[in-house]
Amino acid sequence: NIYGAFGPVEASFKYSTNPKNMTKHQMFDFPETIYNTLGDTTVSSNSALVGPIKWRYEFEQKTDPNAKPIKIVEFCSLNSPTLDVNTETSPSGEKNFHKRRIQ
């Protein structure tokens, strides 16, 4: 499973009035403020992990005979954005990644 945490995802909303009053009349109430979290611009990174964690648990605990091993991979993270993941630079200036690193 590959997931990302590189873009904003709407997480919660603040309304100046109770939005139920509008929806009772088939109208839409727009929020005063929208709060974002990180994700892949569609799903938050936290919710993207729920399924894979369950699948990994089922495989490790052998609770599902059809469970398969799973790798959980995060890409394009804003975590430590100044960190250069490329470990070597060739004489021509090309950057090469040769080592696995967990951060």
Q: Into how many domains do the coordinates divide?
A: 1
Return the structural class: alpha+beta
Topology order in helix (H) and strand (E) letters:
EEHEHEEE
- Specify the helix fraction band: 10-25%
Uncertain stretches = none
Radius of gyration: 21 Å
Biased composition (Polar residues): 83-93
Region (Disordered): 83-103
Describe the structure.
It is a single chain. By secondary structure, this protein is an alpha+beta fold. It has one domain. It is 21% helix and 24% strand. The strands form 3 sheets. The protein has a two-stranded parallel sheet. It has a two-stranded antiparallel sheet with strand order 2-3. The protein has a two-stranded antiparallel ribbon with strand order 5-6. Strand 5 and strand 6 form a beta hairpin. The protein is flat, with a radius of gyration of 21 Å.
Give the topology, please.
Blueprint: E1 2-4, E2 7-14, H1 19-23, E3 33-39, H2 45-61, E4 73-75, E5 88-89, E6 95-96
Give a quick set of tags describing it.
two-stranded antiparallel ribbon, about 100 residues, 6 strands, alpha+beta, single chain
Concise summary:
With 103 residues, the protein is α+β, with helices and mostly antiparallel strands. The chain has two helices and six strands.
